[in-house]
Amino acid sequence: MKRILPVALLALGLIAGGSWLLTQPSTSGGTITLPGAASAQDAASTPASDVVINDMYLGEADAPVEVIEYASFTCPHCANFHATAYDQLKANYIDTGKIKFTYREVYFDKFGMWASMIARCEPTKFFGISDILYDEQSDWARAGSDGAIADALRKIGLKSGIGQEQLDACLNDGDKLKALVGWYQENATRDAIEGTPTFLIDGQKYSNMSYEDFAAILDEKLGE
């Protein structure tokens, strides 16, 4: 399980390791200018304008059981869960209307935030893009320089059918970034999230587990 940091330390760590203000040439053409570190740092104490961050979920809104996953797009354990357990969970519990599955991002680093901004650029594509981010995590997250990682993420967005102009607007949305940091901090503090992946099943907290263990808990909750 990957341990999370308070958002103030996260912001300071990113500044120490290189500003969140990133202007890099893209091999796909154009320039990527990502929002600055000050936006994230201020989010710990300042409301994020009027930007509303919505929960992303799959399944029926009124399903008998709600599962909330707290995860990071840069977390290898999260990628492993999505590679080994998630598809079965989706087929047997989400798609059958048994559970509402909500995904909430946790931020360890600037790269996870950039990935989140790509995934949220087009809400209807969020889970499809999330699947690609996890499937290709070892490629884009290890692409090398900040510019190379940003470009790899940008290509994922383009491959997912997001237009270049819309994608650039999403990547440069400082208000959205600030709102995401505040949203993440509020969620993680309220639910006492200390690492990823963490699951809340009808409000009860669980750490990473196999599909078999997950199914046993869900079946008990569902009375099956």
Report the count of strand segments. 9
- CATH architecture, by name, is 3-Layer(aba) Sandwich
Q: What fraction, in percent, of the residue positions are helical?
A: 40-55%
**Estimated radius of gyration:** 17 Å
Low-confidence stretches: 5-48
Chain-averaged pLDDT: 82
CATH superfamily: Glutaredoxin
What strand line-up does the widest sheet have? Answer: 4-6-5-8-9
Alpha-carbon distance between the two ends: 30 Å
**Number of helical runs?**
11
Strand content is 15-25%
Shape: globular
- Quote the CATH topology: Glutaredoxin
Secondary structural class: alpha+beta
The CATH C-level class name: Alpha Beta
Describe this structure in words.
It is a single chain. With 224 residues, this protein is α+β, with helices and mostly antiparallel strands. The protein has one domain (2-222): Glutaredoxin, CATH 3.40.30. It is built from eleven helices and nine strands. The chain has helices at 7-17, 37-43, 76-84, 86-94, 110-119, 126-135, 137-140, 146-159, 164-171, 174-190, 211-222; strands spanning 2-3, 22-25, 31-34, 56-58, 65-71, 99-105, 195-196, 198-201, 204-206. The strands form three sheets. A five-stranded mixed beta sheet has the order 4-6-5-8-9. Strand 8 and strand 9 form a beta hairpin. Helix 1 packs antiparallel against helix 2 and helix 4 packs parallel to helix 11 (211-222). It is globular and about 50 Å long. It starts with a strand and ends with a helix.
